[in-house]
Amino acid sequence: MPQGLQTFNENGIILLDTSTRVSFILGTLRVSATGTLRDSRLLDGIPFYMIAPPDTGVSNLMPVNPTVEINGDTISYFVVAGWFSRPFRLIYGIR
Question: Where along the chain do its domains lie?
Answer without folding.
Answer: 21-94
